[in-house]
Amino acid sequence: MIYPNHPLRTQPARLSIIENVAPELALTAPWLKLELKSSSAAPSYSVSISKSWHFDELDAVHESEEEHPFDKERDSAYPYSDTPLPGVSMDARKRKKKVLLMGKSGSGKSSMRSVIFSNFVAKDVRRLGATIDVEYSHAKFMGNLTLNLWDCGGQDAFMDSYVSAQRSNIFSDVAVLIYVFDIESREVDRDLDTYSTIIRALHQYSPSAYVFCLIHKMDLIQLEHKEHLYLERAQLVKERSEGFDLETFASSIWDESLYKAWAGIVHKLIPNLAVIEKFLHAFAKAIKAEEIVLLERSTFLTVTSVVNNTKPRPKHKAPISNSPPSDSPTNESTPEDDSNPNFDRHERISNILKTYKHTVARNTSNTPASAGFVLLKLQTAQFNLFLARLTENTYVFVVVPPGEAAFNCAVLNTLLAREAFEGVTNAK
Amino acid sequence: MSANLRQNKPRLLLMGQRRSGKSSITSVVFHKMPPRETLFLESTTRIQKDSMHSFMDFQVWDFPGQLNYFDPTFDAEEIFSGIGALVWVIDAQDDYTDSVTRLTASVANLQDIYPNINIEVFVHKIDGLSDEYKSDAFQDIRQRIEDELNDHGYKNPPVSYHQTSIYDYSIFEAFSKVIQKLVPPLGTLENLLNILVNNSGMEKAYLFDTMSKIYVASDTRPIDMEVYEMCSDYIDVILDISELYSYPRSESTRLGPQMVETESSVTIHDGTMIYLKEMNKYLCLVSVIKHPDAKDKKGLLDYNAHIFQDALNEVFARGWEKQENSEAAKEPAEH
Ligand SMILES: Nc1nc2c(ncn2[C@@H]2O[C@H](COP(=O)(O)OP(=O)(O)OP(=O)(O)O)[C@@H](O)[C@H]2O)c(=O)[nH]1
Ligand SMILES: Nc1nc2c(ncn2[C@@H]2O[C@H](COP(=O)(O)OP(=O)(O)OP(=O)(O)O)[C@@H](O)[C@H]2O)c(=O)[nH]1
Ligand SMILES: [Mg+2]
Ligand SMILES: [Mg+2]
Prior knowledge:
The structure holds 2 protein chains of 2 kinds.
Chain A: H1 17-20, H2 23-27, H3 69-76, E1 96-103, H4 109-117, E2 134-140, E3 146-152, H5 156-163, H6 167-171, E4 176-182, H7 188-205, E5 210-216, H8 223-239, E6 246-250, H9 257-269, H10 273-286, E7 291-296, E8 302-307, H11 345-363, E9 373-379, E10 384-391, E11 394-400, H12 404-427
Parallel strand pairs in A: 1-3, 1-4, 4-5, 5-6
Antiparallel strand pairs in A: 2-3, 7-8, 7-11, 9-10, 10-11
Helix pairs in contact in A: 9-11
Chain B: E1 11-16, H1 22-31, E2 48-52, E3 58-62, H2 76-80, E4 83-91, H3 97-113, E5 118-124, H4 131-151, E6 159-163, H5 170-180, H6 186-199, E7 204-209, E8 215-218, H7 225-245, E9 263-268, E10 273-278, E11 283-289, H8 298-316, H9 320-334
Parallel strand pairs in B: 1-3, 1-4, 4-5, 5-6
Antiparallel strand pairs in B: 2-3, 7-8, 7-11, 9-10, 10-11
The structure holds guanosine-5'-triphosphate (2 copies) and magnesium ion (2 copies).
One magnesium ion is lined by residues 22-23, 43-44, 62 of chain B.
């Protein structure tokens, strides 16, 4: 047997990123500045581009709204302050959103909350006991958005008390009601009656709330029955929703469907989505990206995404992020723009990355909350992509067509942008 | 020898009691079935033969549990000749007395006719057991098998023991060990990996079969489960993401020249880098680098990995490998 004994080089090969960058790209690094021009008459905004990054509208790094001097200033200059945009609820500028999580006991409310927000893995949820009364928690998101989650224990005695003694306390000032149905429940009619009771109370105190119904534990249903069982149940729920703006999702803590549902919920609540999307579009163009996805740092939920297609875009736009069209007036991409046939890719990315984060945490003796990625790069014959921290609370996931130099350039420009941003925030 | 690597198709036989988990194992390891979905698997009624095409072709035969494997009506010659390993699956959550008895009878039967067969005992479903019970059961099974074989008059039979579960890495780890015994140039691969690791600041490097996540070889530093899990799971990350973005694009979107092999790295919060590079159609190199300078030496890494790739493909080489590689290299140009 003769096997070649190749010498392996111990001196670094010369292959530094900058040298590969096409000169014109390196020089025209996209130093964009997004500026909000507020006008008190009409809720309009415009975006201008200048020579430094400006991220304040993208992400809030301030711990508390009240204490920070910038917040007041910003709020008064904020375009939503007087007249709400269509589809943006009246209190859009109030960034603390009360979210009710309701449904029968055992339907899976605390489980999904733990998986999405507390870094539980699916098999850990068996440890959870039934929730007694209401468990409060909050999740900080980008853009100063804080979700105040009210996980309402679903046992009958509690449910009765929510709609009687605690009625105004529970149902006032609600931004979102998330109602969870167990697909395996044997008492469908009874579940629906309870739901009606809740909906009536919500109608009384928070008529403008959004309602999301999750038909949950879909993993227990065999594949061939999933679709029709879900549609049938969703229809029953719709009939009981008294004209609320309702979205339904099939979900399970065991797959990516949970990420789809919660991304849909969060997407509705991010205050300045329009600005973010404009920004991402401009950025995608500048670095020749095919797609950019913005992910929340700790949950990996998709905040929003843009596809960058050279085809001219039609005038009127619909969002691509979730199958039921939402009424956000701002999303720039249309389904026709999107040449990637995998429409579920965003929730799957959330799931893939979060799963790997758990692996990393487990194997570096870290808590999942403190584990994370600095930079992930993937180059294949068909595409290139990378994931990098963008701001304190977000990752950016960028897909670029093949071409090594362009890819290195895109990575570099994104990292530079981030450093510039960090400089800005540190100086404050 | 290496020229015949693909002609010589070793066979892995999976045997054991009903519901011990044989079909679950093949489904999870070779068909990427999520472990929980094995709950829906039905009992096997006839021998399921799978061919795995990889760096080495091999066959996996999943037997029905209720079958008497030495029934005279079976063609023992057909089943057992040319086999690489007999994998005997024992459900550790169940009473294993009968299984042990059947296994020793089978080994006794086989040893006379085919003395070279590796017997691999998988003490399976250990996920549901406490640590203490787990090791007691493992020791007990091992002891019983050895005693019974001794009673049959077999000294030092070629039996190996593994603790496995489809819910974690143990099943992949065990299969890796089983397969490695069947890889002829293992020593050479390990040497090459050692050279690579020592010259590139790597903590540990594995050569994985990409589709099954079985590792064919690793450098000879001690295995560190933590590193292994991060490497093994990273293959999933890359395969899963690639699936989402590998749709055909028009050639006009291309922004410039690029290598055809997949290459990826991730730097995590503590500065550790996990580095993956496709070696050929079947194999990929995955390694962990904890060296603080790793990020800056990416060029060196790429270069050394490339040299390793050349050496590796020469080892496996001869004909098929080269040919397939050059086909793959042509593909992107055709779009
Ligand atoms: N199969 C399956 N089981 C689930 C899923 N989500 C939750 N479960 C299980 O459902 C059980 C009850 O979950 P919980 O989250 O405690 O239920 P809850 O809605 O908070 O119940 P209360 O607090 O009493 O209102 C747990 O044992 C979970 O394992 C799912 O998606 N699929
Ligand atoms: N807890 C646990 N359950 C397992 C494991 N592996 C398999 N099972 C379960 O064991 C049951 C039987 O699995 P099968 O793979 O059908 O068993 P089999 O050996 O092929 O059975 P026959 O085809 O009847 O011979 C399934 O419900 C699996 O989910 C494991 O590692 N842990
Ligand atoms: Mg609960
Ligand atoms: Mg079977």
